[in-house]
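Example 5.3 — Integrase catalytic domain-containing protein
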Amino acid sequence: MGSLPAVRVTPVRPFLNTGLDYAGPFSVKISRNKTGKAYLSLFVCLATKAIHLELVSDLTTTSFLNALKRFIARRGKCSILYSDNGTTFSGANNHLLELKEHLLKESTRTQIYEFLLEQFIEWKFIPPYAPHMGGLWESSVKLAKNHMRRVIGTTILSFEELYTILTQIEACLNSRPLTPITNDPTDLQALTPGHFLIGEPLNAIPENNVASVPTNRLTRYQLLIQIKQRFWTRWSKEYVAQLQQRVKWKLSSKTRIKEGTMVLLKNENTPPMSWPLGRIISLHPGADDITRVVTIRTSRGIVKRALSKICILPIEENVQN
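Solution (predicted structure tokens):
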């Protein structure tokens, strides 16, 4: 396996080197009996993995440039913009065939290049038919798009409502833990992309739980809250639970937990963003020398939890490898 590109490991401000990709289409409500399409434009920082999501109304050059202008206004001007090659920009997604054909037009590229030249932004393409070289933005699209489709389901939202959901998804993705900030056993904070953006993790506003309320009893505002809460439920049960798989007892001894490991304490009755971080201070192996219970130090004190109720952050093994 080759080394990571220099832009992935060079310390720079967020979004100085950015990857770009599109996803969609998503159905949006225009009027009572009329629907339209909208597309997701995703920007990902190659150094910090921070994500910026923009919703565009169509696949025209004007919409793309407007999304790029909004991104620059909020995140700062990028130096290099990376994307898939024109022949593979849409990948295997036939829904984006129109974008592929549009980007191949000479007039389109000329207009985009003129704007980027004015902004001193270099646009680089990965080689044709090599989507694996854009794995960072491909995986970011997968995180955003799959959860959106699962949570929204058949519900058709207006453009503004869908944009609101996307910004909340963006906050969620920018709050995911990357690595412990220090090796101090008493330090219970994890580094997130949000630290590079605002200096701390992005937090959600407390809201009443409406996940179990029937849809026909909700206002449009409450419907958005319910969609987000269902997203958090799926995130906690599907994604975060996968972090637990690396400590299955059938794995080799090198993946066993150890003192000082940072973990996330699961709680079915609270939003995942409120789950506390802690560090393991003691292991309690059974008679078969298999650890099923650990003692954890959190900011609120010392607690004891079963392994099924914690999530070990996927960090230690990656550092060793």
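Remark. The chain has two domains: 6-140, 179-206+247-321.
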